[in-house]
């Protein structure tokens, strides 16, 4: 398994868990919870693949679907939703932040495969990271996180830009990608803990 595959695996698990937690918080039935988890895990990738004109991998491979199913089953068996509200809120942020950074990296790497410019790399990384969450939040009648937390989307932009620059310098390798995953996650959690926001107009 390559570093990219591992990062994609981490992102899928993290986003499936965050979608599950949203469904549980909204007191949806089992189908609603499954839809929330699945859309969060694969929604950004579907939008990304549509933009670059390729068949979505989830239509030809079973990996992401199997990971989502296993993640939801594990969360249900361990009754994650029965924790106190504060614990659930923190767990959601941890999972969603990890998924955000992981999918930004994988989305940016798809853009590099198509030899896109810096704008294309940043946009595909951003869309892969936030697309599924936006669709999920709209379905459950929530304001998407990128509209509520300024530094949420900014982390995706910065990580995608870093992937582009590292590629231009020929520094992209498994170690660097893992460091970028860890660094982006730390940045996101630090911004959350310190309530860091962008300046307002």
TrEMBL record:
<feature type="domain" description="Glycine transporter">
    <location>
        <begin position="7"/>
        <end position="78"/>
    </location>
</feature>
<feature type="transmembrane region" description="Helical">
    <location>
        <begin position="151"/>
        <end position="169"/>
    </location>
</feature>
<feature type="domain" description="Glycine transporter">
    <location>
        <begin position="94"/>
        <end position="167"/>
    </location>
</feature>
<protein>
    <recommendedName>
        <fullName>Glycine transporter domain-containing protein</fullName>
    </recommendedName>
</protein>
<keyword id="KW-1133">Transmembrane helix</keyword>
<keyword id="KW-0472">Membrane</keyword>
<dbReference type="Pfam" id="PF03458">
    <property type="entry name" value="Gly_transporter"/>
</dbReference>
<feature type="transmembrane region" description="Helical">
    <location>
        <begin position="30"/>
        <end position="47"/>
    </location>
</feature>
<feature type="transmembrane region" description="Helical">
    <location>
        <begin position="91"/>
        <end position="112"/>
    </location>
</feature>
<comment type="similarity">
    <text>Belongs to the UPF0126 family.</text>
</comment>
<feature type="transmembrane region" description="Helical">
    <location>
        <begin position="59"/>
        <end position="79"/>
    </location>
</feature>
<feature type="transmembrane region" description="Helical">
    <location>
        <begin position="175"/>
        <end position="192"/>
    </location>
</feature>
<dbReference type="GO" id="GO:0005886">
    <property type="term" value="C:plasma membrane"/>
</dbReference>
<feature type="transmembrane region" description="Helical">
    <location>
        <begin position="6"/>
        <end position="23"/>
    </location>
</feature>
<keyword id="KW-1003">Cell membrane</keyword>
<feature type="transmembrane region" description="Helical">
    <location>
        <begin position="118"/>
        <end position="139"/>
    </location>
</feature>
<keyword id="KW-0812">Transmembrane</keyword>
<dbReference type="InterPro" id="IPR005115">
    <property type="entry name" value="Gly_transporter"/>
</dbReference>
